Amino acid sequence: MGLLPLAMAPPAEAFNADTPMPHHSSVSGASPIVPQTHVGQRVLVTAAASGIGLATATAFLQAGARVFICDLDPVALDAALRDQPGLGAMVCDVSDEEQVAALFKAATGQLQGLDILVNNAGVAGPTALVEDMDFSDWRRCLAVNLDASFLCARAAAPLLRAQGSGSIVNLASTAGLFGFPRRAPYAASKWAIRGFTRTLAQELGPFGVRVNCVCPGSVSGERIERVIRAEAASTGQSEADVRSQMTAYVSLKTFVSPQDVAHTILFLSSAAGARISGQDITVDGHTETF
Ligand SMILES: NC(=O)c1ccc[n+]([C@@H]2O[C@H](COP(=O)([O-])OP(=O)(O)OC[C@H]3O[C@@H](n4cnc5c(N)ncnc54)[C@H](O)[C@@H]3O)[C@@H](O)[C@H]2O)c1
Is 186 a catalytic residue? Predict the structure, then answer.
């Protein structure tokens, strides 16, 4: 993705789908060198106290950006700030209109503007057949996965349009490319994010603002472990069976890492991605079917 200097890339034959891809680390063990692709860029990443969001915020910091994050969970946010003291941060539920207004006031005040918005917030939602699902669970999933991206994009759009530059990256999922039995609100919200992305790209493109979305596959970490436990409980399968099914139809036979997703977000929002807009890019090892 252009972020790993050629001199540090492993030889092609060293790649194995079971081995995590290298991220800014030298095969010789020397200090990592991170290309300064985002010097001075002002970045807001939502729901970034953990997971993909924190990996993305960290990657932006390492690439020279100034980064503000928010999260619903104050304890996780404190831990993230101890890990990355360079971050600005605020507790915020991004599905709430008033809290998003306060977030943008704080973030754009501290950053003195905005160049990049990463709409990362998303929850797995309920695991159940549509006929067994509570309306409140459906609505909560749509509120975080779709409404929050609308609220944040609506706040960012006039700022980016006025300065004639900037980039928005939305987080969708491979669940937004296929049907997903027992995860209807999640799949519906992620399909919607793709339509929202293309529409926003058309609205903001004439003003030099780019909008893309990233569709991660199953990302290693605490969240996917929760999903595996819920799927096993819902279907009566063992967790091991659920886990192996999740990579059975992935060409590279692996989960992806939060850093894999972060690097794609950085690429899309960098000068290297200057002519890329309205796209959904999968980072999933190639999901053949769901
Ligand atoms: N992890 C995966 O396997 C995977 C796969 C495909 C897509 N995604 C998408 O990537 C994005 C990030 O996923 P993740 O796995 O890193 O998430 P996660 O479950 O690790 O959660 C990240 C953070 O979101 C915060 N959060 C939840 N609701 C919030 C809200 N309303 N307001 C503010 N913060 C909130 C949580 O407190 C948490 O710290 C999501 O949009 C998700 O749907 C994830």
Answer: yes
